[in-house]
Amino acid sequence: MATLKAVRGTRDLLPPETALWNRIEATARAVFARYNFGEIRTPVFEDTSLFSRGVGEETDIVSKEMYTWEDRARAQSEKPQSLTLRPENTAGVVRAYIEHKLGETGQLQKLYYIGPQFRRERPQKGRYRQFSQIGAEVIGPPSAGSESPLRDAEVLEMLATLLDELGITGWTLDINSVGSSGDRARYNETLRQALIPLPPKMCEDCQRRAVTNPLRVLDCKVPEDQPIIETLPKIADSLDEASKSHFAAVLAALDAAGVPYTRNHRLVRGLDYYTRTTFEFTHGGLGAQNALLGGGRYDGLSEAIGGPKAPGIGFAMGEDRLVLTLQALEAARPEKSDAYIAPLGEAMNPPALALARELRRTGLSVELGDGTFRLKKSFYAADRIARRIVILGEDELKSGILTVKDFSTGIQTRVPRAELAAMLKVPSGQ
Ligand code: ATP
Ligand code: MG
To answer: Which end of the chain has fewer CB atoms within 10 angstroms, the N or the C?
Structure first.
């Protein structure tokens, strides 16, 4: 019998990698708590129509990526029902918001989730059929301030903080406004007109999009099409005054908080229900699948699935991609011990242990070599696992002055024992 394997696009997570997943989730929970978000857990499958209405028939997700099945009736009294494994969690959160009448509290709801999502995509690095998202939503009646641009800016500032605390350096935030649904319809029409003479020179996908959904032309990655796309009208010019001032207020708050961003007028994102602010955080280390997270405002979503007016803003981060990014960053700068102590000769082993104890008690991480090693072997071993090597021979022990070499600069210095711990705490290379 053929051996059974995890289904294509799914995978097992094993230790030690699971420790990294747990660290990411613990950091996310701690940051969310500081911003007063509470956790929501919605079912892994929902009625299919939640996604066709809440995500949009036109999107890649609904048109080709969903795991949908007909759940047969088990009794005469039951009806068969079309069910779908959730491909994203915003629709489920908004369904729960409506179902539990959270709007009637009159308060802003700040909810976060962590859990698996399912999309039938072509598996590749950073793209799986079961993957995990960490996301959050701020949603509520307009009287609770849910439409305020300050909510958008606060969510973005929280994300910048979270990525920094996770140790993800070098991220980029791209931001745009797609305006109200009216603005978007107007822009779509402007684009449709502008595209009439162009498609014959463009890729096949663009030829189709120019007719069915002109906005999607902006997503095209084909290099030859880029100069043409750059000449197209920009959505910023189709925004009404209210959307323009909302966007300006978001950017002003980001400037005040010192969150760096790039305005990207081509960022229109995949989901139909987005309004006004849309954003994406990317990381260069991820290659083709470079989006760490995406999100935006969805002022009409609740009404689209039969609920009250409940503007909101949220995001979803790809946890798998956070893991990949952190693994790549950590491989580029492996964790090294602060110091490697090299005793010169076996007789120096006991005083070397005493020195290691002294340094470790100050909080330094120390590797202890062995006096049977030749100096060359000690240097070789130390260079791979420590930032600096400390040499302890008879002379050093007597004089109390130790020889220290910093591997990143190659510089060797002589340091009094009393100053050694402080010196080793300074980052190497300085
Ligand atoms: P992409 O352009 O990469 O397909 P998307 O627009 O489909 O992304 P969203 O629906 O906005 O993505 O999901 C938010 C985040 O979830 C993405 O930025 C990404 O990090 C992650 N994500 C989406 N699809 C997958 C997948 N199949 N496997 C792993 N992570 C994913
Ligand atoms: Mg996708």
So the answer is: N
